[in-house]
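Suppose a colleague, Dr. K., hands you the sequence of a protein chain of 124 amino acids and asks what its three-dimensional shape might be. Before reaching for any lab equipment, you can write down a predicted structure in token form. Begin with the sequence itself:
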Amino acid sequence: MATAKRETKATAKTTKAAASKTAAAKTAVKEEVKETAVVKEAAPAKKPAAKRAVKAAEPTAAVYVQYAGKQAAVKDLLEAAKAAFAQAHEGVEIKSIELYVKPEEAVAYYVVNGEGSDDYKIEL
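The predicted structure, expressed as tokens, is then:
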């Protein structure tokens, strides 16, 4: 019986020691989990990649006036009107320009900065 009591005491000590080790291990695991959570919180969060807006390419465009077997590009007429105005009115800034093409007269009239005249014309 004495031997049984000793074995019981030894088993109890072993069980307590094992329980103590298990508790220590659980505590260590909990601490490690906490540290991992802290590290994850401290690390900057990755932002999702911004979606790039796909901008559609601007189509090329050209406008032509055809009359009496002739053809004139509106772009060229507009540039000629700007040049004619700049030559006649040195130092005046062109803020707006409007172009009126009259094929029956073979001319294009222009209005610059809201002012027009019969003299503001380009021969087609």
